[in-house]
Amino acid sequence: MTDHDFESTVKRYINVLYRIAFNYLKNKEDSEDSVQNVFIRLFHYKKPFKDEEHLKAWLIRVTINESKRILTYNKRRPVFDIGKAAKEVYVDDFEKVDFSIELMKLNPTYSTVLYLYYFEGYKAEEIAKLLSKTTVAINLILSRARKQLKGFLQEENDE
């Protein structure tokens, strides 16, 4: 991978990977560290990718694994206010901010699957391959996540 290819890959995927990391880590700094570590691994990765989809799938999988690694490490550190972190999400418009805040209240698996399905346009079968799960499991996660998200949104509307 040339320097130009690497730079264009970073520009193309940095926001996607950041949002996935943020779904797990719930704070700006750890999410940035996670994404940085992923791109460092990509820089040192020597095998060629089959195509653009293979590269994207690899980046997403490595981001999820890196985020989980950071979560495990952070269990020894104090917890911070999720409301404060939610305000720091990088999004394009206010509707997405509100949705992102609610999405972050979900279990990381739920929020990651919803994000990949709705924001990245992956199908359940593709998400299943990315997350090493069955399509049935992904559809069940999607169903449960939608139900839980709907509950959060209704609670907010009632207030």
Question: Could you walk me through the main structural features you see in this protein, from its secondary elements to its overall organization?
Answer:
The chain is an all-alpha fold. The protein is built from eight helices and no strands. It has helices at 3-25, 28-44, 52-74, 82-86, 94-104, 108-119, 124-131, 135-158. It is globular.
Could you outline the blueprint of secondary structure elements for this entry?
Blueprint lengths: L2 H23 L2 H17 L7 H23 L7 H5 L7 H11 L3 H12 L4 H8 L3 H24 L1
Helix pairs in contact: 1-2, 1-3, 1-6, 2-3, 6-8, 7-8
Give the biggest beta sheet.
none
Order of helices and strands: HHHHHHHH
Give the uncertain stretches in residue-range form: 84-97
Number of strands: 0
Q: Give the terminus-to-terminus CA distance.
A: 52 Å
Fraction in helix: over 70%
Mean pLDDT level: 82
Provide a compact summary of the structure:
With about 160 residues, this protein is mainly α.
